[in-house]
Structures are given as C-alpha cells and as structure tokens.
Amino acid sequence: MNDKISLDPEGFEVSTNNRQDYVKWRDVESVFAYKSDLFTVDLICMIVEKQDSKVVNMHEDMDGWREFVDVLPNHLHGCRKFDDWFFAVAFPAFETNPIQIYKALHAGND
Questions:
Q1: Per-residue b/e over 30-63, b at no fewer than 16 CB within 10 Å?
Q2: Does residue 82 contact residue 75 with C-beta atoms inside 8 Å?
Q3: pLDDT averaged over consecutive 10-residue blocks of the chain (110 residues)?
Q4: Of 13, 50, 65, 107, which sits 20 to 30 A from 57 (CA to CA)?
Q5: Which residues does 82 contact at the CB level (< 8 Å), separation at least 6?
Q6: What predicted TM-score, i.e. pTM, was given to this entire model?
Q7: Hey, is 11 helix, strand or coil?
C-alpha cells in the first residue's frame, strides 16, 4: 500500500502501510508544517492536531499531498495558503523551520 491522503467534503484520510486515520475538518485544532532532514534531501512534513489532542502526520511524498495542501484554506478558515508558507519551511535547506499554518478559533476564547 502506498502512503496517501484522500479527501472528501467532510474530512480527509491518511493511509500508511500499517495505519489509517480519518479526520473531520471540524475536528482540526492546529496544523504545523516543518521540514525533515533526510541527509541528502529534505522532506516537507505536516502535523495535524485534532481537538482530542491526537495527531496525524503526513509528508510531501504521499499521494494526494498537493491536493491536500491546496484545499486546506478552503476547509480551515484562516489557514495559510501553500504559497504563503512553503518557502519559509523549505529554506534554508536542512533546517527544520517549523511553522504553524492554522489554529482553530473557538467561541469564548480570548
């Protein structure tokens, strides 16, 4: 099985060799993008934190990655667009460069 990200109107599923995680858009608490140093190349990665504090990890080599990062702002109000965060994560090379690209706003929070 290839690692992949599948989308539907209600959420997305991240499938890896040994695990499948489904996340509803409304349950996303925060999203972080960062880069992993693989010695000769870098890998752009993402962590999605759910309201129950569980996290789902994904990366740019997964099938469906580009579609996923392109639709995030459509489903998560206030999420930064790919073009607004990619270069901050990608450069300089071989640095982690973590960046929060989304944080849920909850009614009643300051």
A1: bbbbbbeeeeeebebbbebbeeeeeebebbbebe
A2: no
A3: 91 94 98 91 95 96 97 97 97 92 74
A4: 107
A5: 69, 70, 72
A6: 0.91
A7: strand
In three-state secondary structure terms, 78 is coil
5 vs 56: CA distance, rounded Å: 11
How many Cα atoms sit within 13 Å of 61 on the Cβ side? 9
pLDDT of residue 105: 87
Q: Is 84 helix (H, G, I), strand (E, B) or coil?
A: helix
Residue 82 CB neighbours (<10 A): 17
Instruction: Provide the pLDDT for residue 81.
Output: 98
pLDDT at 60: 96
pLDDT given at position 1: 54
Q: What DSSP letter does each residue of 13-73 carry, written as one string? A: EEEETTEEEEEEGGGEEEEEEEEEE-SSSEEEEEEEEETTS-EEEEETTSBTHHHHHHHHH
